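Subject line: Sequence and fold of a protein, written as structure tokens
Enclosed: The protein record, placed directly beneath this head.
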Amino acid sequence: MSTFRTYFSKDNVIISNKYVNTGLNPVTELFYGTNQKIYSRYIFDFNIDAVKERILDKRINSNIKHILKLTNTLLYDKSSLGVKSSDSREHASSFDLVLFKVPQSWDEGTGYDVKYNNTVIDINGKVYETSSNWFQRTDITNWDEPGIYSGITSTKYQELKTIHFDLGNENIELDITDIINNLIIVGTTNFNGLGLAFKRDYELLITDSLYSVGFFSKNTNTFFEPFIETVWNENILDDRNDFQLGKNNKLYLYTNIRKEPTNLDILPQSVIIKNYNDETVSILTGITHEAKGVYSVSLNLSLSGYTEAILTNFTDKWTGLNIQGVNVGDVEMSFTIRENNYFNLGSEVSEPDNFTFNFSGLKRGEKISKGEVRKIIILVKPMFGFNELVINDLTYRIYINQGREQIDIITNSKVNRTSNQNYFYLDTSWLIPQDYHLELSLESNGTIIKKDDITFTVLDVYTGNINYRI
């Protein structure tokens, strides 16, 4: 499973019937209640150009999911559940939030905090009535309807999803694949972001207290900045040097220009499989474009049909190859049917594999400038041997330490296996500058073996602008 994150470009909280906002607050607070029926709505926007670019050139392949993720401010403070905050606000529980589409463009706003006298102040105590707010989307332009929409019957109201909260300390992890794919694939225009609000029934309640739920905003000084996580299945498993009878094997073609992965103009026309007598065994056309400059085809040769073929070469000819307008002809490669170690039947019980490893492409403690893309090659050797191996079931995980917690940035993901190396790409363009840990593990014979972590640091790139966050 591969990962890419898109962080919010702007966000804001607008408050019912007020010309103020909390656009610069590190916490997004949604609330409702009191005898004034006061409530707030959270709006946010993001740029998906980086995701779209990666999909187009196949750095991100198919089977994509897009997950909206916001971290609850009570995540690590369960003792506050059911307890009033210092300003006598109640922590909301057993409620629904709705995700809605923002119908018009808007500015972020520079407000900071909310007080019970319904005044918004910044850290210096100055009142800011800036846009966007309940009435205005910019300082000179009003929303078509105050608060973006006036009710669920409004033509401006487009409810997309509903999120239920039980205790009120849950994070938001909402699948919005259909929404993002509509923007990327269908090419929807005039997108102005999304919003979160309490379901309309809650907004209209009269209560003794103000009920609220908080999430970290894009202005947080913590690692819990909200984002959209794009995940996809990318796992190259090349069987060219471990071709087994009686199973689906995958053969790969890698296309490069001066060692840089480069896509073909169109899919190869076919793959012609010939046996050791130069007889055509199969002509395959179900070719898959798996990643940038990577193509695969599946082949299954039966156990009964090739009993005498062990350790014998076959050839695979890839035809109809065109790259950057040039017909580069056909490419013929070979693979050898190995002595079967895929089906293990008998009286023996195997021991788990173990190994040692080194990295190429990343050093322990290395400092990397944000935006670098590294190809991390994992050099594997048996525990008490010297020959380098290309192995199966190798995974990696990237995480950070937050107090006593380990927070996954990339959950356990398969390491690619080609005919001659194990590798994965580390894209730092979406990593927040700080220290990271890389963990490598191997699952073998029902046992998970983990190796010592490698620590590296992502540094921010100086752009010529100094951006102070409050």
Summary: Residues 177-186 form the longest helix (10 residues). Residues 249-336 form one domain. The two ends are 35 Å apart (CA to CA).
